[in-house]
Amino acid sequence: MGIIGTIFIGLIVGLVARFIKPGDDSMGWIMTIVLGIAGSFAATYGGQALGIYKAGQAAGFIGAVIGAVVLLVIYGLVSKK
User: Fold this and answer.
1) 36 contacts 11 by C-beta, under 8 angstroms
2) What pLDDT is recorded for position 18?
3) Which residue spans traverse the membrane (predicted)?
4) What is the spatial distance between Cα 42 and Cα 50, in angstroms, rounded to a whole number?
5) Phi-psi category of residue 51: left, alpha or beta, with phi > 0 → left and psi -120 to 50 → alpha
6) What's the predicted TM-score (pTM) here?
7) Is 39 left (phi over 0), alpha (psi -120 to 50) or beta?
8) Do residues 68 and 46 touch, judged by C-beta distance below 8 A?
9) What was the pLDDT predicted at 54?
10) What are the CB-based long-range contacts (under 8 Å, 24+) for 2-8?
């Protein structure tokens, strides 16, 4: 999957992660989508580099959602100051 495909999946992943993550998010939709794209990049290329899955497998989407949820949680903890 190319970079454009990863960005598109990141948009979807950001929205899915927003609905999965419990609690009240004070961030906007744009920040959620940006964190989804970042989580998608990290999980997609990190998982492939580690040999966990190959491009195009469903595990990549699941990994991207988990990565985005982790980034949303970290962002929520950092921005609570």
Assistant:
1) yes
2) 78
3) 28-46, 58-78
4) 12
5) left
6) 0.73
7) alpha
8) no
9) 76
10) 6/37, 6/40, 6/41, 6/44, 6/45, 7/37, 7/40
Q: Is the pLDDT of residue 65 over 80?
A: yes
**Contact between 29 and 11 (Cβ < 8 Å):** no
- Token pair recorded at residue 1: 């999957």
Please give the structure tokens belonging to residue 36: 């989804």
Whether residue 27 has pLDDT greater than 80: no
Instruction: Return d(Cα 1, Cα 18) in angstroms, integer.
Output: 24
Residue appearing with tokens 């999980």: 43
Looking at residue 46, its amino acid is G
